[in-house]
């Protein structure tokens, strides 16, 4: 399914678990693992000095990617190592597109202070801009692969459907259970939210969304499918509760493109999940309006 996987790294302790998981996925898919280090030349301290400072960053980066490649090689995974200069998030996005990788794997935390390359802010910007699916791994996650239980939250939008397509293919490949969840956010229904007619109407729409998603998953070859509709005051909280209660291994969720990340309900939910989910979050970008 994945033939090329990108792992951007700064070599910090926060990246070790994510690297191990990237290697696990690459080994299972017989994929090439691209290990990328970005020498951040956009910082004033670097831009003003250049020369020896940039050389030192690149030398350090070479050590970082070589060490990661050695760990991958020990598992029999083929690697490509690269050190580039530039703005970290943009360089990562451009590399993923240019090398036609199928998946980017990133931690949500990296180094702190002036030496940071892959902090959460960079990861979130990659999530927002990458045309390639991005698998984010938080500091509390302890991921294993292959996945046995995948969760795809859905509201029936194009944004959610993009995630469903990838999630269903991955579940079918790994013979995993695909959990489909639609959450009715009661706080968005107004003052009379408890009125039965309103709740029934929104529940019906949510049920239609998971039923349609179930049909897509079945057509993709998924044998084990669970469909749920829940009512909560917070979509983000409902998803996290479902993750905990059903031992979910990964959440596959859609996000709008550059101009719409925070415009739509699932956009803000995705951002919260990337920051706080106890399991990996696989984000799949929906094309922005000008690309549709």
From TrEMBL:
Signal peptide coordinates: none
InterPro entries given in the database record: Rossmann-like_a/b/a_fold, Universal_stress_UspA, UspA
Gene3D superfamilies reported in the protein's UniProt record: HUPs (3.40.50.620)
UspA domain location: 1-137, 147-285
Assigned protein family: Belongs to the universal stress protein A family.
UniProt-listed PANTHER family: STRESS RESPONSE PROTEIN NHAX, UNIVERSAL STRESS PROTEIN UP12
Protein name: Nucleotide-binding universal stress protein, UspA family
Organism: Halogranum amylolyticum
